[in-house]
Amino acid sequence: MYLINKKRIKNNKKLKKDLTPLEVKYLKRKFKINPKKIDKKSFMLLFSGLDGIIIGITCVCVVNVCDIIILQLLLGLILVLALIFIFYEILGRILVRKGD
User: Fold this and answer.
1) Which ranges of the chain does DSSP label H, i.e. alpha helix?
2) Mean pLDDT of 6-26
3) Which of 1, 54, 59, 65 could, after both became Cys, cross-link 48 (CB 3.0–4.6 A)?
4) Among positive and negative, which fits the CA dihedral 44, 54, 84, 11?
5) Is the pLDDT of residue 13 over 60?
6) Confidence (pTM)
């Protein structure tokens, strides 16, 4: 994910103006975190790791629960959204405690 984001930003001239990832914008809006204090490279790696964990958990849960494709898609969508909100909420609270 990190390499895809980096290549997409590198190739698109419009994105070069605004290099702030969507995850950082979400944390800024929700937790009032200053994005200028955030090291973008380390946070891109952290966000990519979190996204990988979310995708992995979702795949394991969806494949092992049922064999009906429509239920798998529905369960996968619900699980992905829930895990995204949970993990980013935890990350935001950790950053607020650190004082970033």
Assistant:
1) 2-11, 13-17, 22-31, 40-65, 69-98
2) 64
3) 1
4) positive
5) no
6) 0.73
Query: How many structural domains are present in the chain?
Result: 1
**Burial status of residue 13 (CB atoms within 10 A of its CB: 0-12, 13-18, 19 or more):** exposed
pLDDT, one tens digit per residue, over 61-80 is 999 988 899 999 999 999 99
Q: Please state the length of the chain.
A: 100
Q: For residue 78, give the 3-state DSSP assignment.
A: helix
Q: Is 12 helix (H, G, I), strand (E, B) or coil?
A: coil
Q: Is the dihedral of CA 82, 92, 49, 43 positive or negative?
A: positive
Mean pLDDT of all residues in 11-16 = 54
d(CA 53, CA 18): 26
Domain with 41, as residue range(s), is 2-98
Q: How confident is the model at residue 24 (pLDDT cuts 50, 70, 90)?
A: confident
Q: Which tokens is 46 given?
A: 């952290």
